[in-house]
Design brief:
The chain is α/β, with parallel strands linked by helices. 44% of the residues lie in helices and 25% in strands. It has a five-stranded mixed sheet, sandwiched between helices. A five-stranded mixed sheet has the order 9-8-10-7-11, sandwiched between helices. It has a two-stranded antiparallel ribbon with strand order 2-3. Strand 2 and strand 3 form a beta hairpin. Keywords: Signal.
Length: 268
Amino acid sequence: MKKNVKLFALMAVLFLSVFTLSACGKSANQSSLQKIKSRGTLIVGMISSNPPYEFHTTENGKDKLRGSDLLLIKKLAKKMHTKYQIKSMDMNGILPALQTGKVDMLVTSLSPTPERKKAATFSKIYYKSTNTLVVRKQDLSKYNKNPKLFNHSTIAVVNSSTQQPMIQKLYPNAHLKMFGTIPDLALAVNNKKADAFSIDLPTTALLLRQNKGLRETNFRHKDASNGAAIAMPKNTTKDLVNLVNKVIDQNKDNYKHWVLQQTKYVQQ
Protein backbone atom coordinates (compact mmCIF):
# COMPACT_ATOMS: atom_id res chain seq x y z
CA MET A 1 0.00 0.00 0.00
CA LYS A 2 2.77 2.41 0.95
CA LYS A 3 4.59 1.59 -2.31
CA ASN A 4 1.45 2.45 -4.29
CA VAL A 5 1.10 5.77 -2.46
CA LYS A 6 4.75 6.64 -3.13
CA LEU A 7 4.38 5.64 -6.79
CA PHE A 8 1.26 7.80 -7.15
CA ALA A 9 3.00 10.76 -5.49
CA LEU A 10 6.02 10.36 -7.78
CA MET A 11 3.80 10.26 -10.88
CA ALA A 12 1.95 13.38 -9.70
CA VAL A 13 5.23 15.27 -9.24
CA LEU A 14 6.44 14.22 -12.68
CA PHE A 15 3.13 15.28 -14.27
CA LEU A 16 3.26 18.70 -12.60
CA SER A 17 6.89 19.17 -13.67
CA VAL A 18 6.10 18.33 -17.30
CA PHE A 19 3.02 20.61 -17.23
CA THR A 20 5.02 23.49 -15.73
CA LEU A 21 7.87 23.12 -18.23
CA SER A 22 5.37 22.93 -21.07
CA ALA A 23 3.66 26.14 -19.91
CA CYS A 24 6.97 27.93 -19.54
CA GLY A 25 8.09 26.79 -22.96
CA LYS A 26 4.84 27.97 -24.49
CA SER A 27 5.22 31.38 -22.84
CA ALA A 28 8.83 31.69 -23.99
CA ASN A 29 7.84 30.85 -27.57
CA GLN A 30 5.08 33.44 -27.73
CA SER A 31 5.48 36.39 -30.06
CA SER A 32 5.47 39.97 -28.78
CA LEU A 33 1.81 40.39 -29.72
CA GLN A 34 0.79 37.04 -28.23
CA LYS A 35 2.40 37.94 -24.90
CA ILE A 36 0.37 41.16 -24.70
CA LYS A 37 -2.84 39.35 -25.65
CA SER A 38 -2.18 36.56 -23.11
CA ARG A 39 -1.67 39.16 -20.39
CA GLY A 40 -4.79 41.00 -21.51
CA THR A 41 -3.22 44.42 -20.98
CA LEU A 42 -1.07 46.64 -23.19
CA ILE A 43 1.46 48.43 -20.95
CA VAL A 44 2.56 51.79 -22.37
CA GLY A 45 5.18 54.28 -21.18
CA MET A 46 4.73 58.02 -21.70
CA ILE A 47 5.89 61.37 -20.32
CA SER A 48 2.28 62.44 -19.46
CA SER A 49 3.24 66.12 -19.09
CA ASN A 50 3.47 66.99 -22.77
CA PRO A 51 0.23 68.71 -23.83
CA PRO A 52 -1.62 68.36 -26.14
CA TYR A 53 -0.06 64.96 -26.79
CA GLU A 54 -0.40 63.68 -23.22
CA PHE A 55 -1.39 65.58 -20.08
CA HIS A 56 -3.40 65.47 -16.84
CA THR A 57 -6.59 67.40 -16.15
CA THR A 58 -8.93 67.60 -13.16
CA GLU A 59 -12.56 66.83 -13.91
CA ASN A 60 -15.21 66.65 -11.19
CA GLY A 61 -12.41 66.61 -8.63
CA LYS A 62 -10.71 63.60 -10.20
CA ASP A 63 -7.46 63.35 -12.11
CA LYS A 64 -7.86 62.39 -15.77
CA LEU A 65 -5.26 61.66 -18.42
CA ARG A 66 -5.93 63.12 -21.87
CA GLY A 67 -4.07 63.76 -25.11
CA SER A 68 -3.74 62.76 -28.74
CA ASP A 69 -1.25 60.02 -27.85
CA LEU A 70 -3.78 58.53 -25.41
CA LEU A 71 -6.37 58.38 -28.20
CA LEU A 72 -3.83 56.50 -30.34
CA ILE A 73 -3.17 54.07 -27.47
CA LYS A 74 -6.90 53.38 -27.20
CA LYS A 75 -6.96 52.51 -30.91
CA LEU A 76 -4.01 50.13 -30.42
CA ALA A 77 -5.62 48.38 -27.44
CA LYS A 78 -8.91 48.05 -29.33
CA LYS A 79 -7.12 46.43 -32.26
CA MET A 80 -5.42 43.99 -29.87
CA HIS A 81 -8.69 43.32 -27.97
CA THR A 82 -6.95 44.16 -24.69
CA LYS A 83 -7.11 46.72 -21.91
CA TYR A 84 -4.31 49.30 -21.59
CA GLN A 85 -2.18 50.58 -18.71
CA ILE A 86 -0.20 53.82 -18.71
CA LYS A 87 3.09 54.17 -16.85
CA SER A 88 4.14 57.81 -16.50
CA MET A 89 7.82 58.77 -16.39
CA ASP A 90 10.15 61.58 -17.43
CA MET A 91 12.18 61.71 -20.63
CA ASN A 92 15.27 60.27 -18.93
CA GLY A 93 13.42 57.14 -17.84
CA ILE A 94 11.38 56.10 -20.87
CA LEU A 95 14.02 54.22 -22.91
CA PRO A 96 15.45 52.37 -19.86
CA ALA A 97 11.89 51.30 -18.99
CA LEU A 98 11.45 49.91 -22.50
CA GLN A 99 14.81 48.12 -22.47
CA THR A 100 14.15 46.46 -19.10
CA GLY A 101 10.70 45.21 -20.09
CA LYS A 102 8.69 47.44 -17.76
CA VAL A 103 6.55 48.57 -20.71
CA ASP A 104 5.55 47.03 -24.04
CA MET A 105 6.00 50.24 -25.99
CA LEU A 106 6.42 54.01 -25.74
CA VAL A 107 3.69 56.23 -27.18
CA THR A 108 4.83 59.72 -26.25
CA SER A 109 5.57 61.72 -29.43
CA LEU A 110 9.03 60.17 -29.56
CA SER A 111 11.23 60.75 -32.61
CA PRO A 112 13.29 57.84 -34.00
CA THR A 113 16.74 59.43 -33.82
CA PRO A 114 19.77 57.33 -34.89
CA GLU A 115 20.80 56.98 -31.24
CA ARG A 116 17.36 55.78 -30.16
CA LYS A 117 17.18 53.31 -33.04
CA LYS A 118 20.14 51.50 -31.50
CA ALA A 119 18.03 50.77 -28.43
CA ALA A 120 14.53 50.30 -29.86
CA THR A 121 12.42 49.22 -32.82
CA PHE A 122 10.32 52.06 -34.21
CA SER A 123 6.99 52.15 -36.02
CA LYS A 124 6.06 54.30 -38.98
CA ILE A 125 5.82 58.06 -38.36
CA TYR A 126 2.40 59.12 -37.10
CA TYR A 127 2.91 62.88 -36.70
CA LYS A 128 5.36 65.67 -37.52
CA SER A 129 5.28 69.28 -36.36
CA THR A 130 7.30 72.50 -36.73
CA ASN A 131 9.45 74.01 -33.97
CA THR A 132 9.76 77.58 -32.75
CA LEU A 133 11.65 79.61 -30.13
CA VAL A 134 9.91 81.42 -27.26
CA VAL A 135 11.31 84.41 -25.34
CA ARG A 136 10.16 86.88 -22.70
CA LYS A 137 7.75 89.56 -23.97
CA GLN A 138 10.25 92.40 -23.54
CA ASP A 139 12.86 90.54 -25.64
CA LEU A 140 10.63 89.65 -28.59
CA SER A 141 11.52 92.62 -30.78
CA LYS A 142 15.28 92.26 -30.54
CA TYR A 143 15.25 88.53 -31.32
CA ASN A 144 12.89 88.97 -34.27
CA LYS A 145 15.08 91.75 -35.67
CA ASN A 146 18.31 89.88 -35.09
CA PRO A 147 17.89 86.07 -34.79
CA LYS A 148 21.69 85.72 -34.63
CA LEU A 149 21.38 86.77 -30.98
CA PHE A 150 20.22 83.23 -30.23
CA ASN A 151 23.75 82.08 -30.98
CA HIS A 152 24.93 83.86 -27.82
CA SER A 153 21.92 83.08 -25.61
CA THR A 154 20.94 80.43 -23.08
CA ILE A 155 18.31 78.19 -24.66
CA ALA A 156 16.24 75.63 -22.76
CA VAL A 157 15.22 72.31 -24.33
CA VAL A 158 13.86 69.00 -23.07
CA ASN A 159 16.70 66.56 -22.49
CA SER A 160 17.14 64.09 -25.41
CA SER A 161 14.43 65.89 -27.39
CA THR A 162 14.64 66.50 -31.15
CA GLN A 163 15.02 70.22 -30.44
CA GLN A 164 18.33 69.60 -28.67
CA PRO A 165 20.43 68.62 -31.74
CA MET A 166 18.51 71.11 -33.88
CA ILE A 167 19.51 74.07 -31.67
CA GLN A 168 23.05 72.76 -31.32
CA LYS A 169 23.41 72.71 -35.10
CA LEU A 170 21.74 76.07 -35.79
CA TYR A 171 23.32 77.93 -32.85
CA PRO A 172 26.56 76.13 -31.93
CA ASN A 173 27.67 78.92 -29.57
CA ALA A 174 24.43 78.98 -27.60
CA HIS A 175 24.41 77.61 -24.08
CA LEU A 176 21.88 74.77 -23.84
CA LYS A 177 20.07 73.96 -20.61
CA MET A 178 18.37 70.57 -20.47
CA PHE A 179 15.17 69.88 -18.54
CA GLY A 180 13.10 66.76 -17.87
CA THR A 181 9.61 68.09 -18.60
CA ILE A 182 7.93 70.59 -20.94
CA PRO A 183 6.57 72.94 -18.20
CA ASP A 184 10.14 73.36 -16.90
CA LEU A 185 11.03 75.17 -20.13
CA ALA A 186 8.56 78.00 -19.54
CA LEU A 187 9.57 78.23 -15.88
CA ALA A 188 13.22 78.59 -16.87
CA VAL A 189 12.54 81.52 -19.21
CA ASN A 190 10.07 83.17 -16.83
CA ASN A 191 12.59 82.93 -13.99
CA LYS A 192 15.45 84.19 -16.21
CA LYS A 193 17.35 80.93 -15.98
CA ALA A 194 17.22 80.83 -19.78
CA ASP A 195 16.72 83.44 -22.50
CA ALA A 196 14.57 81.24 -24.71
CA PHE A 197 13.20 77.74 -25.11
CA SER A 198 12.48 75.61 -28.18
CA ILE A 199 9.48 73.30 -28.64
CA ASP A 200 6.91 72.46 -31.33
CA LEU A 201 4.13 74.87 -32.31
CA PRO A 202 1.11 73.08 -30.74
CA THR A 203 2.88 72.83 -27.39
CA THR A 204 4.01 76.47 -27.69
CA ALA A 205 0.41 77.65 -28.14
CA LEU A 206 -0.58 75.91 -24.92
CA LEU A 207 2.39 77.19 -22.93
CA LEU A 208 1.70 80.77 -24.04
CA ARG A 209 -1.89 80.50 -22.78
CA GLN A 210 -0.48 79.69 -19.37
CA ASN A 211 2.44 82.15 -19.45
CA LYS A 212 1.29 85.65 -20.42
CA GLY A 213 4.79 87.11 -20.10
CA LEU A 214 6.20 84.94 -22.92
CA ARG A 215 6.02 85.41 -26.68
CA GLU A 216 6.58 83.20 -29.73
CA THR A 217 9.30 84.48 -32.10
CA ASN A 218 9.29 84.33 -35.90
CA PHE A 219 11.68 81.38 -35.77
CA ARG A 220 10.36 78.29 -37.61
CA HIS A 221 12.28 75.13 -38.25
CA LYS A 222 11.52 71.48 -38.88
CA ASP A 223 14.07 69.45 -36.96
CA ALA A 224 16.12 66.73 -38.62
CA SER A 225 13.88 64.03 -37.18
CA ASN A 226 11.26 62.14 -39.12
CA GLY A 227 8.55 63.05 -36.62
CA ALA A 228 6.81 61.09 -33.86
CA ALA A 229 6.80 57.28 -33.85
CA ILE A 230 6.03 54.44 -31.45
CA ALA A 231 9.05 52.76 -29.84
CA MET A 232 9.10 49.03 -29.09
CA PRO A 233 11.81 46.74 -27.66
CA LYS A 234 14.64 45.91 -30.03
CA ASN A 235 13.64 42.23 -30.24
CA THR A 236 9.95 42.91 -31.00
CA THR A 237 8.46 40.36 -33.40
CA LYS A 238 6.95 41.40 -36.71
CA ASP A 239 3.34 40.66 -35.76
CA LEU A 240 3.32 43.48 -33.19
CA VAL A 241 5.21 45.90 -35.47
CA ASN A 242 2.79 45.18 -38.31
CA LEU A 243 -0.27 45.70 -36.11
CA VAL A 244 1.09 49.01 -34.78
CA ASN A 245 1.86 50.23 -38.30
CA LYS A 246 -1.61 49.24 -39.49
CA VAL A 247 -3.24 51.26 -36.70
CA ILE A 248 -1.03 54.23 -37.60
CA ASP A 249 -2.00 53.98 -41.27
CA GLN A 250 -5.67 53.95 -40.28
CA ASN A 251 -5.38 56.94 -37.93
CA LYS A 252 -2.59 59.18 -39.24
CA ASP A 253 -5.02 61.78 -40.60
CA ASN A 254 -7.18 61.49 -37.48
CA TYR A 255 -4.17 62.23 -35.30
CA LYS A 256 -3.77 65.72 -36.77
CA HIS A 257 -7.34 66.51 -35.69
CA TRP A 258 -6.81 64.94 -32.27
CA VAL A 259 -3.88 67.28 -31.57
CA LEU A 260 -6.06 70.35 -32.17
CA GLN A 261 -9.06 68.82 -30.43
CA GLN A 262 -7.16 68.03 -27.24
CA THR A 263 -5.89 71.61 -26.77
CA LYS A 264 -9.31 72.66 -25.45
CA TYR A 265 -8.93 70.31 -22.48
CA VAL A 266 -5.57 71.72 -21.35
CA GLN A 267 -6.16 73.61 -18.11
CA GLN A 268 -4.34 76.82 -17.30
